[in-house]
Design a protein that fits this description.
Elements (H helix, E strand, L loop, with lengths): L7 E9 L7 E8 L4 H4 L15 E6 L6 E9 L4 E8 L1
Parallel strand pairs: 2-3
Antiparallel strand pairs: 1-2, 3-4, 4-5
Length: 88
């Protein structure tokens, strides 16, 4: 599958790095039937809203063997990468 915007929602602001435009970091929740290896591919969240330093809690593979992973975003707003921080 591919990223589905309906599965992503921002639920909190996590803090700020400095002041000004782009300094505020956010926390997101994403639900998907995609497995972790698909979500973790480069460009999956590009242009979707998360920026580097945001945290995304993902409920993955909901139509299979469901799991939860928490990621911190890396890269740039145009080229979002993910680093897994917590796996349950």
């Amino acid at each position: 599958m591919a990223f589905l915007a309906a599965g992503l929602s921002k639920y909190a602001h996590g803090g700020a790095l400095g002041t000004g435009d782009g300094s505020l970091r956010s926390m997101w929740h994403y639900v998907t039937n995609d497995v972790d290896t698909v979500v973790e591919t480069n460009a999956y969240f590009d242009g979707a809203g998360p920026i580097p330093g945001d945290i995304i809690t993902c409920a993955l593979d909901l139509d299979g063997t469901a799991e939860v992973k928490i990621y911190v975003t890396t890269g740039t707003a145009a080229d979002v990468g993910l680093t897994a921080m917590l796996i349950a």
